What does this fold into?
Amino acid sequence: MDPLSDHEVSQDKLITLGELSRGIAHDLKNLLTGIHGNSELALRGYKNEKATKKALTNIMLAARSAQDLVEQISSYSRNETLPDKVIDLRQLLSKTEKLLADAVPPGVNVDFQLPESAVCVRANPSQMHQLASNLCLNSLHSLARDGGLLSVKLSPKADSSEVVLTVSDDGPGIPEKILPRIFDPYFTTKEIGVGTGLGLAVVHKIVTDYGGSITASSTPGQSTDFVIHLPMCAEQPEEEEPAPEPEDFVAEKKAILLVDDEPIMRGLGMDILHTLGYRVSVAENGREALALVQKNPDYFDLVLSDSKMPEMTGPELAEQLQSIKPDLPFILVTAFNDAVTEAKLKQLGVQEIVHKPFLIENLSRALSNALSKKSSGN
Ligand SMILES: Nc1ncnc2c1ncn2[C@@H]1O[C@H](COP(=O)(O)OP(=O)(O)O)[C@@H](O)[C@H]1O
Ligand SMILES: [Mg+2]
It folds into this structure.
């Protein structure tokens, strides 16, 4: 269907909503097929290290794409604001540049021009990353056929009130007729399964949420420029506490109590914790976890619990454990859409929060952080 032919807005939204669901279903089906097929390959070829490694890498890539898709959808439908902090956009963009490297098609050059010193904004890091990568991916997509240049430029205004981020490409450009609609949710000129039409809607929402502005301009056949203004902040980013090496604790074989109602997550958690060198006990719910701790109050070194569980939630479990064993470190594993704020969680005795889906590295760091705080007595 040609999305340009229909100018009736409400009708158009209904149609594109249908298209969107089909697009998402199509994307997910492909990704799941990849995960399924490669899991089978890995199982069959587990004696062949090289084949297994390749299959596992493909599984990880598919899972990452599925995660991107879900993040895009949830950022657009999210109402609450995410926790923010002072971040150096220059550092963040150089990370984005590295992460995008795999997505650069042949014949396309990428040029990031970043200033010499820090450019700070107060924002949520993953939203800022999403903003930059959505714009870059659109450019890369437009350049895929004939090649060209994607340039990203970050420059603070002289009075340090605002930072200007420009994402430009010399691809085919955007026809004048559709330029006013590109920020509309679900508006896409791409095929089903290729575009969801949510990328720029998400970018627009993020920019306005942070009190900034965005403009798009294009000369068809020549270039496209997106210019974003964001308020700068005078503070400097907090020094990240250097995380103790996870290896420090592996040798000691600390005992972890893993609480999760989902059998798959429990199995995965157990495997990961074993790989990291911990002893693991499991509980299927909060009640079971409480009973285990009550029975052996000195056995466990840490509780690692899922947040959303029937009967008793993770935060509720943390609160109850405080009265049994107040110094037992508690890590909460959660999806972003928690009703309880981070400050409230700390009050309930939650030391570290790990967001789902997590990298093993992040979990490992949270574990060593929580365990080292305990052993150093604060
Ligand atoms: N750099 C660009 N060059 C050409 N067209 C673009 C560019 N960026 C965005 N567009 C147009 O804007 C539309 C909406 O973009 P977006 O919201 O990211 O959704 P999607 O990429 O899923 O189509 C795209 O389908 C495309 O037509
Ligand atoms: Mg896009």
Observations:
- The CA atoms of residues 104 and 175 lie 24 Å apart.
- Residues 1-9, 243-251 have pLDDT under 50 and may be disordered.
- Residues 9-44 form the longest helix (36 residues).
- The chain has three domains: 9-77, 85-231, 247-375.
